[in-house]
Write a structure and sequence with these properties.
Elements lengths: L8 H9 L10 H14 L3 E7 L3 E8 L5 E3 L4 H5 L7 E3 L12 H4 L6 E8 L5 E9 L7 H64 L1
Antiparallel strand pairs: 1-2, 1-6, 2-3, 4-5, 5-6
Helix pairs in contact: 2-5
Length: 205
Amino acid sequence: IAPSTPANERERIKDLYSYSILDTLSEEDFDNLTTIASEICDTNISLISLVDKERQWFKSTHGLNATETERQYSFCAHALNAPDDVFIIPDARRDERFVDNPLVAGDPNIVFYAGVPLVSESGFPLGTLCVIHDAPKKLSPNQIKSLKALSRQVMNLIELKKKKNQLERVTERLDAKNKSLEKFVYSVAHDLRSPLNNIISVTEI
């Protein structure tokens, strides 16, 4: 069963695009967090997934060689509809929403899934930090607590990248204005030099 679309989808997508993170290169800071998530939860796979209009794209993957999948098959897209909760599927083979999902029936053979929504400062769920296993599983309260803490760190990193990008754009605009000002000052100085030289010559005479 395909995930339902959030009521605020247009605003959510606009917020997602404001981060300019989709299709960027992998980064060690994000990869470290997915590695830790898999270690804590003892799962084969961990992902940082961002849900676009028609796809889910992975900023970081641990244990999976893929960059994106179709949104209609996305577990993470289901999690967007409950941004305040951890979305947990103990056994996808016994869940009517996922029993015939290609990601369950075939590679990577998802059985267990747990995803914590990545909620932006504006309150929109952009995707999830999720852990995946090929066998039924349950997470302890401490594991869930740790996964939530890691998801907050992922979102902090995403927010920091956005602020860095904004700062770089402001710096570029200031540099451009400074160059324009330098050209203006040079032009004014050049235009004033000739009449000033004439005045000096007349004064000397």
